[in-house]
Design a protein that fits this description.
The chain is mainly alpha-helical and 120 residues long. It has one domain (2-118): Protein tyrosine phosphatase superfamily (Protein-Tyrosine Phosphatase, Chain A), CATH 3.90.190. It is 62% helix and 0% strand. It contains 8 helices and no strands. The chain has helices at 2-11, 26-37, 42-50, 53-59, 62-68, 82-96, 99-105, 111-118. Helix 2 (26-37) runs antiparallel to helix 3 and helix 3 (42-50) runs antiparallel to helix 6. The protein is globular.
């Protein structure tokens, strides 16, 4: 899924709209991987992820939060925390040695082309 996402940025005209209901789970992780591939510092990736927090109250009203929490839903369902993104980024470094290693593991070999296209 991540490879197809990155390939789609090369195969289609830009700009691209990347979205979901809230932008913190799959979409947030995809955007983080893209940012890693582009060389964005991890602190900026985490800051961008955290920018979703003010919007969560509108997407997850009190009624929904009241249902999720007693039913054992994860806190992540209704919130973002820096350690969520920091943990994912640390995992990419630990397991793959960083963005380049991760891109190799998903068989995405167009990192330089992606950078050239998106970092004009």
């Amino acid at each position: 899924m991540f490879r197809r996402f990155l390939e789609s940025l090369l195969d289609h005209p830009l700009p691209a709209l990347v979205h979901c209901t809230v932008g913190k789970d799959r979409t947030g992780m995809m955007v983080a991987i893209l940012q890693l591939a582009l060389g964005v510092p991890e602190s900026r990736i985490v800051a961008g992820y955290m920018a979703v927090q003010p919007h969560l109250k509108r997407r997850f009203p009190r009624r929904i939060r009241a249902l999720v929490q007693p039913l054992g839903g994860p806190p992540l369902a209704c919130s973002v925390r820096p350690e969520y993104m920091e943990g994912m980024l640390a995992h990419v470094v630990e397991k793959y040695g960083g963005a380049e290693g991760y891109l190799r593991s998903i068989e995405f070999s167009c990192g330089a082309e992606l950078q050239a296209r998106l970092l004009q």
